[in-house]
Amino acid sequence: MEKMDRRVRKTRALLLQGLVKMLETHDIQDISVKELTELVDINRGTFYLHYDDIYDMLHKIEDEMFLEFNEIMEQKPVITNSLASQGPLLEFFRFLDRNRDLAKVMIGPHGDLAFVNRLKDQIEKRTLQVLESAQSDANYEYLCSFIITGCVGVVETWLKESDPQSPEEMAEILGAMLLRQLNFAPGPA
């Protein structure tokens, strides 16, 4: 059974690598099972043992990513007076770093808008919790929109970098920006 699990993991990893490579230059609707399996040298029948089609594969991969992402977001509060070396923000960037290639193509020009919207929804849920706990008198709707767009923009820029900063540095950078916007730290608003 363990041998089978290893083979399944290896097959799925190969398919994922191939999908990421193809998403660098193709929209998802332009990727066929035949092209993907030829790229990674796997029989099409093997692909169909794991997935119904390319969209099913993409959705299952996204579901796995968001399961881990949600676990990170449910940890300690994202916003505290010290975001430097711990907490979900750092774990979020470590998570993205571990999944850099996939996250980069999903957010990129050939990526999946549903993935980006799902990411925004998750950030929005957490941001609203933070705003409510901060008892901010700011207009939640606009501030939340500003924070979500800013966070996604920072992530997108970081993922595009050829020599990116470490997850620790990014947690510091984004943490400081968020703290300033929420008036938890001194600095321009």
Automatic annotation (TrEMBL):
Highest rank taxon of the organism: Bacteria
Q: Which Gene3D superfamilies match?
A: Tetracycline Repressor, domain 2 (1.10.357.10)
Q: Which Pfam families match?
A: TetR_C_8 (PF14278)
Which is one GO molecular function term here?
DNA binding
| KW DNA-binding (keyword) present | yes
Question: What keyword terms does UniProt attach to this protein?
Answer: DNA-binding
Q: Which PROSITE patterns match?
A: HTH_TETR_2
Give me the positions annotated for DNA binding.
32-51
Tagged with keyword Amino-acid biosynthesis: no
Q: Which residues form a coiled coil?
A: none
Q: Which residues form the HTH tetR-type domain?
A: 9-69
Q: What is this protein called?
A: TetR/AcrR family transcriptional regulator
- Organism annotation: Waltera acetigignens
Q: What is the lineage of its organism?
A: Bacteria, Bacillati, Bacillota, Clostridia, Lachnospirales
